[in-house]
Amino acid sequence: MRTIESSDFQRILDALVTRGYTLLGPVVRDSAIVIDEIRDMKDLPRNFGDHQEPSHYSLSQRNDGAYFGFAAGPVAWKKYLFPPRVTLFTAQRSGKGFSVTPGIDGWSPRKLAFVGIRACDLNAVAIQDRVFSAQEFVDPMYAAIRERVFTIAVHCTAPGETCFCTSMGAGPKADHGFDLAVTELAGEGRHIFVVEPGSAAGSEILEEAALRESTEEELHCAEDAVERSAASISKRMEIDGLPQILRENLEHPEWEAVAKRCLACANCTMVCPTCFCSAVEDSTDLEGTGAQRQRRWDSCFTMSFARVAGGNIRPSIRARYRQWLTHKLGNWVDQFGTMGCVGCGRCITWCPAGIDITDEVDVIRGNGVHV
After folding, report:
1. Are 74 and 117 within one domain?
2. Which of these, 15, 27, 112, 217, is most buried using a 10 Å CB contact count?
3. Is the distance from CB of 170 to CB of 119 less than 8 angstroms?
4. What residues of the chain score a pLDDT lower than 50?
5. Is residue 215 located within the same domain as residue 264?
6. Residue 45 preceded by cis peptide, ω within 30
7. What residues make up the domain containing 272?
8. Over the range 303-317, which residues count as b (16 or more CB within 10 Å of their CB) and which as e?
9. Which pLDDT score, from 0 to 100, does residue 106 have?
């Protein structure tokens, strides 16, 4: 483990920029902490925290100088690995024929550095890795971007009220999938980062930044900060035997009860870091000489998602909500060997109706009542 003063953390970022990486990290924009391109530490949301609860998000002020003193925001890192809209190919008419150009022909992705990714989102990336690049069919765009990403994880010390990552084994401490992992210790007269390498590339950056060895006290404080963070997470989801329980309760009355509250707005799937549904759209220009096919994010909550030749197989909100929850917490295990939820709480925070997935699971299990 190495330690660096907060004022010197820029040395790590500079080392990445020197290697050609584009830095992506948290920034304050539109009254929220989102992910965007950054140039240096001055772009990070210093002294900002957040308050989250069902259907509520607001920024708050801190006075300890922390750069990462907040929970997961509305923007998931997946937008850089699995972009919201991608051109698959273009076609151009020429005489009596036409030519087709694949969207990724000759395309080379940027080298991206994820600065400040949390354990929940690291686990979400690992899930999407299974979906897009660990199966028989590999998404070439995803794979090309993914192999050029450098990750600086932050052990979360400021979870939100909607977080339940401990139930899903996905946080708050990052234990895999990073090149560097940092614990920020702010306040009490000091502001330092305790840094842990997770790969050869990460160790190389640490050596170049010339960081000192961490003291025993610093290591203890870093460990204690993460333990206190985990202990502060009160929201829970009981997952033992959950896939089977969901399969046995497909006609549970709670599906109808939650459907009366759900707006089918698809907010939950848009902010979810693991959802991967997409649709394909074809369009032409006004002259009819050019056309393109694009892939865009889609959601199982939209009416068109389940439309087939014989009609719509999920015409009701009840059916669509049931499909989303049972797939994410049940069928994913059969498909990918893991649940499709990392407990980040985004779907709870950003649901305008305040629907809480942990409450719904409790009711289906028979451990709770509909609110």
Report:
1. yes
2. 112
3. yes
4. none
5. no
6. no
7. 242-365
8. eebbeeeeeeebeeb
9. 62
> Residue 352 corresponds to which tokens in the numbers above?
């305008």
Task: Decide if 52 is inside a domain.
Answer: yes
User: Smallest Cα–Cα separation from 23: which of 192, 205, 167, 168?
Assistant: 205
Could you tell me if 179 and 46 lie in one domain?
yes
Residue type (1 letter), 298: D
Q: Which residues, in sequence order, are CB contacts of 335 under 8 Å at separation 6+?
A: none
Structure tokens belonging to residue 127: 């899930």
Inter-residue contact 296 to 279 (CB < 8 Å): yes
Write the Ramachandran bin of 162: left for phi over 0, alpha for psi from -120 to 50, otherwise beta: alpha
Q: Using the 8-state DSSP alphabet, how is residue 41 labeled? A: G
Residue finishing a domain among 232, 265, 287: 232
The count of other CB atoms within 10 Å of the CB of residue 352 is: 12
Q: What angle do CA 241, 244, 247 make, to 5 degrees?
A: 150
Rounded CA separation 3/307 (Å) = 55
Q: Which of 232, 264, 281 is the last residue of a domain?
A: 232
- Rounded Cα gap, residues 330 and 322, in angstroms: 11
User: Which pLDDT value is given to residue 105?
Assistant: 64
The torsion angles phi and psi of 126, rounded to 5 degrees, stand at -60, -35
CA-to-CA separations, 290 to 85, 259, 294, in angstroms, rounded: 19, 43, 13
Residue that is written with structure tokens 């979400």 in the block: 124
295 and 207 both lie in a single domain: no
Tell me the three state secondary structure of residue 182: strand
Please check whether residue 292 is in contact with residue 91, taking contact to mean a CB–CB distance below 8 angstroms.
yes
CA neighbor of 43 nearest in space, from 31, 61, 19, 25: 25
- For the chain, the domain total comes to 2
